[in-house]
Amino acid sequence: MTLTPLMRLGPDLTSRNRQQLLALLPALLVLLWQQGIAALLTLLLSSLCALLADALGQGLRAQPILPCLRQGEALLSAVLLTLLLPQAGLVLGGSVAVAILLLRQLFGGNGQSLFHPVAGALLLAALYLSPSPAPANPGLCLATVAGALWLSWRGIIRWQAPLSLLLVVLISLPIGSGWLLGQPALWLLAGWVMTDGCSTPVTPQGRMIYGQTTGMILVSVAALGQPSSAGLLLASILLLLSAAVPLLDALTLQAKRRM
Amino acid sequence: MSDFTLLPNGMKLPSHKQASTTRPIATAALPAQLQLALAGSQCCVEPGQRVLKYQLLARPDNALGLAVHAPTSGHIHAIAPYPQALPGTPLQTALLLHSDGQDEAQPLAPPPDRAGQSRLELAIFLQDMGVTGQHGPLLPLSWAASDAPLELLIINGMESEPYISADDMLMREQASELVAAIQLLQQRLRPTRLVLVIRHDKPAAISALRTAAAGQTWQIEVREAPYPADDAPLLTRLLGGTAETTLCLPVAGVHAAGQAMQHGLPCISRIVTLSGAVEHAQNIRALLGSPARELLALATPHPYSAGIIHGGGLRGFTLADDSVAIHQHSNGLLAAAPRPSSSVAAAQPCVRCGDCATICPSQLQPQELYWHCQTQDLMQAQDWGLTDCSQCGLCSAVCPSQLPLLDSFRNSSLQLQADQQQQQAADSARQRHHFRQFRQERDKQEKAQRLAERAAQQAAKLAQTPSAHPASAAKPEPSAADKQAAIAAAMARASQRQQHHQGQTATAATAEQDARAAAIAANRQAAIDAAMARAAARKAAQDAAKAGADSSPSAAGPTPAPEPAPDKQELIRTSMARAAAQKAAQAAPPAPTTMDDDKKALIAAAMARAAARKAERDDGEQET
């Protein structure tokens, strides 16, 4: 029975992912310009690993492989991780593959996972890399922000969670959260991971609470403790708070009671 | 005038109405056969019968049903289940009318005198004329029968559904008839305020109506509201009315009502928009029951078009079978264009983007509602606002996972309605049953009273005849006393059996095999005794009632109550003594545990039974 309406008003999943990838293009160009061939190799390697892992997962679950790869979720994760850890190389490829298998395919694929594979892969990769505060990168930050704003204008991502996070970071400038703003990881995770519906609350209020809580934990650790990798810190906070998403949903979603 | 409207989340909703408004309303050719659904109406013609145009074919048989009139002359070919132009194309009983091409009409009955019509009479008249509203007759009968005041009457000319322009063209071309119809309704229903509300995207209709309605006391309001502006509850809220005191009528229904009230014309046709992937998008006036495929062929669908969509671009649904016929609610038929292959993919899991909740005009959470509808949890679905869903289809149109949200909500609401109807039917059946029980109880009581009175009269007659047979009048008394004694004895026996049985079961676990066998035997015996006692008690009670009826007038009568015969007294005494002795004997061993006790009890019971039987036999002999 196919009773789909004649008209479609919103983009489908494939189109959404394509637009998210497109929004990463300026940042990717800036990265390639800054780091040259090494970043390109990391990009190719991580993309290949991500696609292979996704295909393997789909195959193991006896699901169609090609439509899933074409939808671009795995590719989006790989590109995001390349931007986050451009010099990681093989370690990155491995952690992307493991994160996609464990956090995406093991949960049942698209739309089922509560934990974002990008955040998971960041933590995995950190096991093998020495955690060191990345230098500020204003060029990459600006390109990322531009992409995120475009997505928000297109209505592909919801602004509540990233904006709440940003507000907390801005308010805490006096206690020394300023260096966070120069980290591309903050913008990338805020724009592409914190806006993913599966690992964030579904209501606007829930998203705001989620963003504010993330911001408060981030600021209190980053500003009061010693500076470390912002991406790693934010990723672990997001994974932690993802576990609280069902609770936030239950608190903010209210059924209309019958009369 | 723009070609699209902005939705709450910034999405653009194209209207697609331009194409079908360039030509005047055409009239469809007479189809070879028409298929008229009989939902909620009782057929009053037979297969093979020739019918004339306007002839009544089916009468409404409930408050939501509508009369069906012949759209043209011809022969009734069959009355059978046919697929209907409804979501899922369900089978429903329908009349198949083969047109004879002569279109021979029967003379129209003049409309009833308008001055004498009450609100309810008007509603029933419109129901008999087959004039439909949103659900069922144009004027809901339950509303018409109530005495709720009518503060706001809305004539709904919003028509915000994409592609559909049927109401728009009707208002443009039949403005004066529409104005006359509204005027009649105003006279009949006397609303405090009457508003014809039109959406801003119909300038031609607005100017036509403004010209036609010059000098009228009601208002024409032009509103700029986003889709679904034509939803009655939303429109009521928009115009500041309350659900209880507001009536919202569709323009097409009001026009049909005007034709019925002025000329006695039953509703046999409607305006249908033909659009979508077609060469000549247009509106046609089509007879109800015309086949959808034949109608759409008039607009020359593109050769690549795939299937027919019934309804508009958002609320519409594809017809699984395109030979189905149009009905009163068929405002549009769209030729579906094939989808680009990338978007044909099956529904994906929800990614919780929240777009459906943002766009929902009823502020529901469609993703939650969908979950409960999919699991058939109608209670939860109601909690999440299933009944508030206006089924506008926006959530389905924006869902990136292409989940069939609208279909799911539509099916669940239909199921909910069916459940509620079933519940109502069960309730009324239960009430009927209770009512019947009460009546039966009343009849029984009346009968008993009648019998008692008759017996009393007879007794009084017997008492007045001077003591011809004093014994005959005296007889019932002692026998009744004896019976009472028998009852007492039987009851005593039964209670002892019960005690005995209880004691038996308490020790059954430890008793020997034979003891258990004896216990079973005793148990069975006890059951038989109890049954006999019951029967005896029933008989005794009947006799006692008779005797009581006999004795009361005789006590009031001149003759004093006769003394019981000596032999009877003797009997009573013995039976009472027997009962007392048995009671004492049984009470002494509270829980018989040994074989001997069981046997004794059995013997005692058997003796008591025999004695009771003998007493009864004696009784019978004496009575005869």
Mind explaining what this structure looks like?
The complex is a heterodimer of chains A (259) and B (624). Chain A is mostly helical. In chain A, 67% of the residues lie in helices and 0% in strands. Chain A has helices spanning 13-35, 37-60, 66-71, 73-84, 90-105, 117-128, 138-154, 160-171, 184-193, 204-224, 230-242, 245-252. Chain A starts with 12 loop residues before the first helix and ends in a 7-residue tail after the last helix. In chain A, 49% of the residues are buried. Chain B is an alpha/beta fold and 624 residues long. Chain B has 3 domains: 4-20 and 115-335, no CATH class; 341-419, no CATH class; 472-623, no CATH class. Chain B is 47% helix and 14% strand. In chain B, strands 3-16-15-19-17-18 form a 6-stranded mixed β-sheet. A 4-stranded antiparallel β-sheet of chain B has the order 4-10-9-6, with no helix packed on it. Chain B has a 4-stranded parallel β-sheet with strand order 13-12-11-14, sandwiched between helices. In chain B, strand 1 (4-6) and strand 2 (12-14) form a beta hairpin. Chain B is elongated, with a radius of gyration of 40 Å. Classes of the chains: A mainly alpha (259), B alpha/beta (624). At the A-B interface, helix 1 of A face strand 2, strand 18, helix 9, helix 11 and helix 12 of B.
- Amino-to-carboxy terminus distance of chain B: 106 Å
Q: Which residues of chain A sit in consecutive blocks of at least 5 with pLDDT less than 50?
A: 1-5
* Biggest sheet descriptor of chain B: 6 strands, mixed
Strand content of chain A: under 5%
Strand order of the largest sheet of chain B: 3-16-15-19-17-18
CA radius of gyration of chain B is: 40 Å
The whole-number mean of residue pLDDT values of chain A reads 89
The number of strands of chain B is: 19
Percent of residues in helices of chain A: 55-70%
| Integer tally of domains of chain B | 3
From the N-terminal CA to the C-terminal CA of chain A, the straight-line distance is 34 Å
- The SS-based structural class of chain B is alpha/beta
Structural class of chain A: mainly alpha
Tell me the greatest interface. Answer: A-B, 36 and 59 residues
Q: What's the shape of chain A?
A: globular
Number of strands of chain A: 0
